[in-house]
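Recap from last week: sequence in, structure out.
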Amino acid sequence: MNAFLPEHKIETAELLSLAERLADELEVLRDENARLVKQLRTDALTGVASRAAWDEALRGLDPSRGGEALSVVVVDVDELKTVNDEAGHAAGDALLRRCAQLLAESVRSGDLVARIGGDEFGVLLRAADESQVAMWCARLERGEAKRWSIGWASVPPAASLYDAVAQADRRMYERKLARRMARR
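Predicted C-alpha cells:
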C-alpha cells in the first residue's frame, strides 16, 4: 500500500453504475453526432442536401465510378434577387423551397439534389446518359420554364466528374444569358 494515496476500494456495484452512466453518455453523444452530421448535410432552408453533401458526393464518385454513366445538372433560380427586392425575402425563400421541392420530386431515390449556392442547385443523376439527362431537363423546363435556367453534362465512365460540373455550369450560364437577352 502506498502511504501517500488513501486506500479506496471500488465496489462492483459502483463499477457497474459508472459503466451504465458512461454508456448512457456515449449514446447521447452518438445521437448528437448523428444530428449534427444530418444538419451539416441538409440545407436548412430547402431541406435538400447541402453544399457539404454535394461536395462529399463528388469526392466519393469521382475516383472510380465503375462503368456507370452519370449526369450532372446545375439549376439557377432566375430573378431571385428581383423577387427578394420586390416581394421580400420570405417570398424569395418560398421560391427556393418550391424549386427544391420540384427538383426533389423529379429524381429517383439514388439521385441527389443539393443547394450548392444561394440560388443554385446541383443534381446528380445516376445511370443517366446524355440523352436521358437532356429529356429530364426538357421536362423540368416545360414545367417551370420561367423560373430557372438549367445546364447539364453527362459523364462517361472514367471521365472527370469535376469537368462535367464545370460544363453543366457553363451551359446553365449560357442558357441564362440567352433567356435574359430574349426578354429584352
